[in-house]
Specification:
Strand order of the largest sheet: 2-3-7-6-8
Number of domains: 1
Radius of gyration: 12 Å
Number of strands: 8
Distance between the termini: 21 Å
Largest sheet: 5 strands, antiparallel
Shape: globular
Strand content: 35-45%
Helix content: 10-25%
Length: 84
């Protein structure tokens, strides 16, 4: 892993890998569906070495969706629950 900060935070348990805590959303690059949200952690996609920048709870069904951009905090159909 080239990103040393990400590697350290993953090893120390400070960061959750969205690929282990959830799954990618098909057809939506940089978006992941989480099984549960843990507010005290940072989030990343360890394979892509990409930080998660926002997490939202979808109003329609309560699904928790993460994004590698801040877009989850600017959408009317989501409640922003975390932003990097």
């Amino acid at each position: 892993m080239a990103n040393r900060t990400m590697k350290r935070k993953l090893l120390d348990g400070e960061t959750l890998d969205v690929l282990k805590a959830g799954s990618p959303i098909k057809g939506q690059s940089g978006k992941y569906l989480l099984r549960q949200f843990e507010e005290s952690n940072d989030y990343c996609d360890a394979i892509e070495e990409a930080w998660i920048w926002s997490i939202g709870r979808r109003h329609a069904d309560g699904a928790i969706v993460t994004s590698t951009t801040v877009d989850m905090c600017s959408r009317d159909d989501y409640e922003c629950i975390w932003r990097r």
